[in-house]
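Re: beginner question about structure tokens

> Can someone show what the tokenized structure looks like for a real chain? I only ever see the sequence side.

Sure, here's an example I had lying around. Input first:
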Amino acid sequence: MNAISAPNPMLGIMIFMLGGLMGAVFYLPFSRVKKWAWESYWLVYALVGLVIVPWGLAFATSPNILSVLAATPRERIIFCLICGALWGFGGLTWGLMIRYLGVGLGLAMGAGLTSATGTLIPPMLKGKEAIAAMFSTPGGEASVAAAAVSLLGIVCVGLAGRSKESELPEEVKKKAVAEFDFRKGLIAAVFSGVMSSAMSFGLQGAPEIQKLALTTAPTTSVTWAGIPVLVVVLMGGFLVNGGWCIVLNIRNRTAGNYVDRATPVAGNLFFAALAGLFWCLQFVCFKTGEPSMGKTSYIGWAVLMAASILFSQLIGILLGEWKGTGKKTRTLLAAGLLLLIVSSALAGVAGSL
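And the corresponding structure tokens:
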């Protein structure tokens, strides 16, 4: 059996931050996909990010992956699959959210809602003791404070987006985000954010699988013990994303995209697969960073989402999504980014407590 090393919160925070970066940049490769229908490149992304990468990593790091899943209670497998499927429904509209709001504002709104529900609800589902620990221990209180500061930062970023809409003329807004529409984007963000939080429920709701990974010979190391959980949750997500894309391929007669020589097939496959790799890596970072956080590992979801928002804003600035905005908008944006950085620092303190 593996010995559990002492918590190292700063290492955990760094791993979560790296995951946030992956979550922020995952959508960028799609801009290089040419002449393919959405369902075609999204299917490649889903197949790579939700099946090929996690299972490949599982076989590389978890020598007991198959025996662990075989020994896991069926109801726990079903729970993880359902959580992944719920996230999958949110993932289908994640692209719409970015389409209408842009990378910066879109990810801030969606990831913010995902952070709020995905951070605080999972420990509450573990029972009264876990809830009490959140409000009666120094580490728990610091964790709740980190989540609250993160939410405040997200509100500031959202207000900055609302201010941007009122400040800029239509042609300027659409120069950076071609289909900018705050109302449609907000609806997509609310649905995507709430549904996507189910990923957190699944990844944090299967301690039996991780325990089996650590105790079933040949054992998996503590660092990679969460990967068997990840493959099950992501498979649930693939059933929704992949299934819907196949339906659209058939309905829209776009299955020919994959062999159409009039399109850059090799390039499209590469960039769609790269998006899938980046998307999967954020959750790999989440599960491998948890052991370093000790008993306050649940705060990792807030750090992951806050980092994703932080990096997405920086990318949005580089892409010119905030170009031409006034002092009020930029002040709100700067305040939001500062609060997100503070929330990550508080999460690190929570882990050390």
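Each token stands for a local structural state, so reading them left to right follows the chain. DSSP finds 14 helices and no strands in the chain.
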